[in-house]
Structures are given as C-alpha cells and as structure tokens.
C-alpha cells in the first residue's frame, strides 16, 4: 500500500511539473514586447530579426513616427510553406534596434480558414484603424486562398479577423494594399498574372472589376508591390529569381519595364519606404544560420534612385543599414 502511495505521489508531482512548465512557456510566448538587439556575432546588422524566422516584411510609417514592420513567420522545422503561422509586428526608431510586439494574428483566430498557411501580409492605416490584409487557405491548399482582412485600434495589435474580400481568391495571392495621394486604395495580387482593383473604403469589397496589369515583361511570378515617388508609380514583384520592376504615370499601368531591383535573392518579397530622408529596401534572405527557402530571415538595405527616377540594383549584404540618430 505504501509503495502504491509513493507511485501515485510521483505521478502527481510529475504532472504538476509538466503543467507548470507549459503554463510558464505560454506566459513567455504571450509577452507583448521583446527588445531585439543586434547580434555581436556579425559585423553588420543583417538579418535584422534573428531570434525567430521571419519573412515577407511589410514596412510602414504610421502616425507615431516609428517604422512598423509586419512579417510572416517561418518555423524552424518547416519543409514547406504550410507551416507558416502567426503574423508578428516589429517597430523601430533607428532601423537597427527592433521591438518585437509578438504575435498579432494566428490561424486559430480565423474561423473560415485552416491551420497554418498564413502567407505574406500587407497593411494600411485607414478609417482611424490599422488593417492587415493577408492570404490564407480555406482548406489547406495553395489553390484555395482568400484575401482576409483583420483590424486593430493600435499598430501593435492584436488584430481581429473581419472576413475576406469577395472576388480575390485562387492561388497564392501575395496581396499589396496601396493608398494614393487622393485617398483611393488599390489592391494588387496574383500569381503569374498580376491583377489590380480599387477597394471600397471598408476594405472588404472591390469597387471595380479586377484588371490584369500590363508591365512590359512576361517574367512576373508573385509578390506584387506598389509604391509612389515624385508622381511616378513603381510596380515591383518577384520573378521567381529575384525582384524586378516597372514604372507608370498611374496606378493601373501599363508599366514600362525597367529591369532588376534585387535579382540575386531568390523569392524576393519586398517593401520600400523613406524614413528620415533615406530610402530603404525590406526583404528576406535564406542563407543565414543554415536557412532554407522555407526558413527565412528579414533584412534591410539602402535604396537609391538615379536622376531619371529608375532604381539602382540592390546587393544583399551582411552589413545592412546603420543606426539612424
């Protein structure tokens, strides 16, 4: 009897210890902010996020003057993109030191989708709220993606799913949302055949029928991105073997093909912004700490324009960018 009592006691103590560890881990994972310091193992600042795998950076400057970056999340044991899950938010005031605000949206929070399959997000501030637009699989296939919409009152989230945009579905979408100077909002998406359509102010409905983008070169694969500079519209994308772009006088195109931005980084998925007078190129790479195409890391480079408005080619570096004072 005494021996049986000892066995029961051991089982109870073990169970309590396991639950305690799980709860402690859960509390650590829910920590809203983690300061991410540059690694002393590198002479430079790339990749900028090293404690977890991140990809597809969508960079923005909101009203608080900080640089905000929303990323997808690669898992360490990933063998395909189906395990991508849990979008994260990062912020910085100097482009080198980043605060990890934690997970802002997970597949468990999306009632119409499956687990995993949280691919490249895009973001916008509209209607006094922050929105994430993101591709997500309904049943667990790259062919049944929808463009979901989630909203938050603050840039660090969490974001709450409010549905999807009808008429934007199919293969992996890689959406990019772009607001023009007149307040009109456009959505770019698609694989192999890029599309664009203006969105209604609620960001949940198309305001017009989608148009196929003409861009002067037939090497488009995925990862549409739009930015504007000096009245010119820049449509950039991944060709499967790096990033390329074209220019136009309006958000629909046709875009005149201009060549490469980042041709040596396979699967380039980028965003571009100007911060304190300097232009920056946000992207991900695959060659840090035994990374693969399923385990990627966010990096940043300087971006430079020529006098005619064309973009100088980016070269991926470990040096990255310097701290902004």
From TrEMBL:
SUPFAM superfamilies, per the entry: Arabinanase/levansucrase/invertase
Molecular function in Gene Ontology: hydrolase activity, hydrolyzing O-glycosyl compounds
Family matches, as CDD domains: GH43_AXH_like
InterPro entries assigned: Glyco_hydro_43, Glyco_hydro_beta-prop_sf, Glycosyl_Hydrlase_43_Enz
Keywords: Carbohydrate metabolism, Glycosidase, Hydrolase, Polysaccharide degradation, Xylan degradation
Residue intervals passing through the bilayer: none
Record has Methyltransferase as a keyword: no
Biological process, per Gene Ontology: xylan catabolic process
Site features described as Important for catalytic activity, responsible for pKa modulation of the active site Glu and correct orientation of both the proton donor and substrate, chain residue numbers: 174
One of the Pfam families matching this protein, by short name: Glyco_hydro_43
Signal peptide extent: none
The keyword Hydrolase appears for this protein: yes
PANTHER family reported in the protein's UniProt record: ENDO-1,4-BETA-XYLANASE (PTHR43772), PUTATIVE (AFU_ORTHOLOGUE AFUA_2G04480)-RELATED (PTHR43772:SF2)
Record-stated family: Belongs to the glycosyl hydrolase 43 family.
Descriptive protein name: Xylosidase
Organism, scientific name: Jejuia pallidilutea
